[in-house]
Amino acid sequence: MEQANRFTDSARLVDTYRRDRVLLAGDAAHIHSPLGGQGLSLGLVDAANLGWKLAAVIRGDKPDSLLDSYTSERRPVAEAVLANTLAQVALTRPDPQSSAMRQLFAKLMEIDAVNDHLDGLTTGLATRYDLGAERDLVGRLTGDRPVGRAAARTSLFAEMAEGEGILLDASPDGHAAALAAGFTRVRCLPADAGPSMLIRPDGCIAWAGDVGDVEGLVDALERWFASAAPRARRLPGTVMLGRAVVLRAVAIGAANVADDVTTGGQNVTGRLPGSVVAAVASLPHPSQTRRRNAQLNAARWSETVEASPASSSRPICSTRPGRSWSRSASRT
Predict the structure, then answer these.
(1) C-alpha span between 89 and 101 (Å, rounded)
(2) How is residue 220 annotated by DSSP?
(3) What's the CA angle centered on 74, arms 116 and 16, to 5 degrees?
(4) Contact 170, 160 (CB under 8 A)
(5) Which of 46-55, 174-183, 298-307 has the weakest average pLDDT?
(6) CATH class of the structural domain 12-123
(7) If we measure between CA atoms, which residue out of 17, 40, 204, 209 comes closest to residue 127?
(8) What is the pLDDT of residues 26-38, one digit of tens each?
(9) What is the CATH T-level fold of the domain 146-224, as seen in this structure?
């Protein structure tokens, strides 16, 4: 019995990873030399990037347009891998020119910075998606790491096993976690050191910063995760405090915000949870931030607080002593 196999080192890449309901991943989207097993790694990360987005669309959490980010994020990575493997193939050719290049390359490999750069290319750890953020951390794949306070350490990958996003909150009093409370499928974990980071289910860092970057964090949450407001259980005496209320507190000061919130056909007013009050009270004046707060959609962000029927005249935000309101369970 004879067996004939065909081997080729040709490199090919599709123009788009998505056309309507057809989505490509792995070797269906890109082929190249198998040197270094880079194709296997590339295909696995394709699947991780696509899987959670597809699930979010199927659940109805996010619009179909979320899937367009699959091509824009993963195709540039494949282009870089194809270029890298073509260069590796060129170095293996048995001709004098390639031999001279191999000798030069061997010398370059003695430099640590060159090794680090090539390691990042071949392992994919140098990947950075263009998410429109200036901070270098944003768009990078985080990899596994210890998370949680020193007394209760766990690993990031273990916490991500359920396919949820992770907010590592390094703010002193959990301010970042309070701002993320109005979104589904985001788990908040304390972190010993900053910056705080919002990590998507595929391990991509979607936001990194401190509590002063309220709009940056909420924008990232709105972009990648679903608001809890449409699916929150409206129990008797429950008030949904809109994102606009919180950002108005940022704009004019937490102590000055008083607004009506409608629930069950009745207008009531109440106090924000203490953690949110503390967060917005410590933020900079709007002259130091972007001035588009008024146009933000209140329905896309919410804090659920448990209202007492007797408390119909307290201001939404207040720094005065008084009975605070406790957040009710809104995760579904």
Answers:
(1) 12
(2) H
(3) 145
(4) no
(5) 298-307
(6) alpha beta
(7) 204
(8) 999 998 887 777 8
(9) Glutaredoxin (3.40.30)
Give the Å distances, CA to CA, from 299 to 182, 244, 245: 10, 8, 11
Q: Is residue 18 pLDDT above 80, yes or no? A: yes
Of residues 228, 214, 223, 184, the one with CA closest to residue 293: 214
Cβ-contact 77, 122 below 8 angstroms: no
Cβ atoms of 220 and 166 closer than 8 Å: no
Residue 268, token pair as written in the block: 């009531």
Q: Please state the separation of Cα 246 from the chain's center in Å.
A: 21
3-state helix, strand, coil in the chain (%, to 5): 40, 15, 40
Contacts of residue 331, Cβ cutoff 8 Å, sequence gap at least 6? 184, 228
> Closest by alpha carbon to 200, among 18, 50, 26, 25?
50
The angle, 0 to 180 degrees and rounded to 10, between the axes of the packed helices 68-91 and 38-59 is 180
Distance CA 330, CA 171 (A): 22
123 or 269: whose pLDDT is higher? 123
Each domain of the chain, given as residue ranges in start order, spans 12-123, 146-224, 229-306
Rg (Cα) of the chain, in Å, rounded?
25
